[in-house]
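User: Could you check the structure of this?
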Amino acid sequence: MILIAIQGMSDGARDVKLEVPVDKIPNFLPEFFGDVILEGTLRRLGDRFAFAGQAACMARLVCDRSLKEFDMLIETEISISFLSEDCTDGNEIGSKEAEFEQNIIRHDDKQLDLTEEVIQRLIVSIPMKKIAPEYEDADINEIFNCEAGRKAVDDIIEENLIEENTQIDGRWSELKKIKMN
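Assistant: Sure, the predicted structure tokens are below.
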């Protein structure tokens, strides 16, 4: 769990730096390993708390070009605010609408739980196209020996054409007569 202690905190700001092992955080993707590092500033103004900072964690990803595993530092910005239940303007604390609009904490809470926010932000920050650093500027022909690969692909295509010609099912011959516009 990623928790920030708020008990006894007076109005103002304080720096926060936490390192939490990934195995202590529930429902985290198996790609992440090591520690989640959370750095930023926690501000309090009356019954309102706001955290702004960065979260970072290492992830083991599979390169889309070479299919090799590589490690990458995933970083993201975190900005979240909390409001005491006394300030909810009559919204029922348990209602889905109130929880969605604001992060509600009880007046006697001793810690802020940032676990879900950090997990979601880190997961969304994983790049869609995962390319290992050594292959970022490499052409696809450089990664794979193109001549050998081309011969192998040509052989496979030729084998498939031979199989297609010898194993034609008569039930499908009527479909060849259909004209496509």
